[in-house]
């Protein structure tokens, strides 16, 4: 009998190992396939748009011979499949080309502008989570009441109203009329030459250097665009929190907890919300990725010097290297956050590991 048990145990161990290997291989294939799809989409967008990269670099009045020579140098005279190969090769080497607008390597520009977008999206996500989760819990607990209807209306407006219209309205009210916030931009011109960035995240840099006047100025600049993004994040997070909490509050363990005499506050915040926290983590991660991806209009409205404004200005100047490079970086971050949220979900919730 002992030998049978050992053999059975070894068989189960091998089966678990095979499942783990298949899971890892599936994960790697998913990442590679998704990233290859992203590269293919950006490449063919660059080829479909009727803009000649060589003519953009040299100018409209450049001699035709010089244009043709540059096209050969850039490989634009090669078949499309070979151009795609060169494109992937350069991207994997970190070469996104040179920006026509700034004359810098695109990666240098992205390293300069992307931290501003991350900072703005982070502030928006924090506002969305801090306000959205309690609103969602309130709506679930008071299901069908006036409070529930108000929360749902707030979420509906967040989903429905165009962000450019709401941004312009916010500027008119809070900047032009009430003057509660600073003018569009990331910081006052007074501090641009006295402030030394360390990490590229200005709020953190000002805090590290204890420059409280700069920190206050940065706050006055970021609060309006960050609050606007936070409102749209709040609409999504509160809606999903409400759905998760309604599902949890109908479970049998909630009935058992009430039968034991636990207070309603403890049941809601320490039992139901704790069990809803794992899917909520995924929702917050996806909301954060969405803000990183969708901040183009917000940055344009508020003159926020992030990757969205960089891509917009590059597109207006036919700088396709910068446009495609920024698109790839944002897409890569979006893919990474999605995959990370999936891994965290499976790690924190053991029930999903066997699926």
UniProtKB/TrEMBL annotation:
* TM regions (residue ranges): 21-45, 120-141, 153-176, 218-237, 268-291, 322-345
Q: What is its main location?
A: membrane
Query: In which compartments does the protein localize?
Result: Cell membrane
Q: Which residue numbers delimit the ABC transmembrane type-1 domain? A: 114-341
The way it spans or sits in the membrane comes to: Multi-pass membrane protein
> Which SUPFAM superfamilies does the annotation name?
MetI-like
Q: Which GO terms describe its molecular function?
A: dipeptide transmembrane transporter activity
The answer to whether keyword Repeat applies is: no
What family does this belong to? Belongs to the binding-protein-dependent transport system permease family.
According to UniProt, the name of this protein is: Peptide ABC transporter permease
Q: Report the source organism.
A: Rhizobium oryziradicis
Q: What is the lineage of its organism?
A: Bacteria, Pseudomonadati, Pseudomonadota, Alphaproteobacteria, Hyphomicrobiales
